[in-house]
Amino acid sequence: MKRGFLLPHWQHTWSMDMYEIYLNDELVGRSDWPPVAQAAWDRAARDRDSAQHGGEAALWKDGQKIASVQPRTGAGHPWPDQATEIVGLRDLAAAILQLSRIAGADARIVAEKLTVMGMPTNPARLKSIAATESGRRTATTPAELVSLCYAAIGALKRPA
Fold first, then answer.
1. Cα–Cα distances in Å, from 138 out to 32, 87, 90, 119, 123?
2. d(Cα 129, Cα 148) in Å, to the nearest integer?
3. What percent of the chain clears pLDDT 90, i.e. is strictly above it?
4. Pseudo-torsion of CA 49, 82, 28, 9, nearest 10°?
5. CB proximity list for 133: less than 8 A, separation 6 or greater
6. What is the pLDDT of residue 71?
7. Cα distance between residue 40 and residue 22, in whole Å
8. For labelling, which of 22, 33, 87, 155 has a CA lying 20 to 30 Å from the CA of 95?
């Protein structure tokens, strides 16, 4: 990992908590990694069939049921475990940059591609997008992350 690149705390260590997500009494997700548990919860809490015909999405943490809801289409239900940080746009930005770096396009190359695309950027700005101190920085937007994704794709397609 390059110095100065910040990753969310949950990417450094696994959780000690085991989450199980059920939809209509069927296990649909089991993980001790919060992003995977939250993704499984999001999927179960928005299940179309259960929303239309009645059903239940349930979240268990370390063998104890902590939430039970009837799924609803669209927004679903928020992550019910308030003791766990919710995965957000900054986490996505960090993952995009990490994936790009592993594939051979570091923040400098991605920043250059964003600049060519019409959004002047430098590597420090990209690193700040992925920083976890959300209260101290301007919020990252979906449009900025879509631009970041396509800049990374463009940077990875560059001739060798």
1. 30, 17, 11, 16, 16
2. 10
3. 51
4. 130
5. none
6. 96
7. 9
8. 22
Mean pLDDT of 62-90: 93
Most confident of 12-21, 45-54, 86-95, 138-147: 45-54
Asked if 105 contacts 152 with a C-beta cutoff of 8 angstroms, the reply is yes
How is the chain split among helix, strand and coil, in percent rounded to 5?
Answer: 45, 15, 40
Tokens of 105: 């396009």
Q: Whole-model pTM?
A: 0.77
Query: For residue 23, how many C-alpha atoms fall within 13 Å in the half-sphere facing its CB?
Result: 19
Cα angle for residues 112, 116, 121 (degrees, 5° grid):
50
Tokens standing for residue 155? 């940077």
CA distance 59 to 79: 9
